[in-house]
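Example 3.2
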Amino acid sequence: MLFRLLRFVLVLAIVASAPLSLDAAAQGLDHAASGVVADQQKILQDLTTRTDNLEKKIQEDGADDASLVDIRLQLEEMSRGALNSALAFRPRLSEINARLDQLGVPPAAGQPPEPDIVTSERQALASQKAEINAVIATAQNLSIRISGLIDKIANMRSELFRNLLTKRYVLSDALSPEVISDANGEFTGFYKAVSSWLTFAFKFKFQAVLAATLTALSLAAVLFVGGRRLF
């Protein structure tokens, strides 16, 4: 009789403590998930602010290749930060999913209802999971945005490189009055230089050239006449 009484008391104690255990477990998961969510939300907000600032800097320094390289390096680091933020929820999601599996699915219509504490815990876990998934979606969207900016920088740097090689000039600038005037001045200077050289050569070099030519012809005539007499 005493043994049965002790067993009955033990069963009552277990039944009475079960709701407390479930409630404590739910609260533990709730606090842990809330802490991780708050931490990662702050991290993602900081990354978003930095992304906004760098996007403005891309527009301001679009012609500076060195600045674009520095911005790209920062964006790549931030992309890894967004990915790490999403991965930080993996342990909590595993715990929540495991707990939901333990609780099982809600009873179907017509079946005996489950205890209210089980229903409350399942709803709390589902709410936490939805909140975590929302933060993960924010991290993924930020990562996609950063990747788009990295691709934009790559295109801008390619355009800068092509412009450096081709040196494109606007035709209207090339045919402006200032350019035509400068070209005319250069041509006039070149013409004067050539004319001066030809005049100098004709005045001072022509006589020397003529004398040398006559001397050469005279020597050739002497050699020709002397050669005929000898042979």
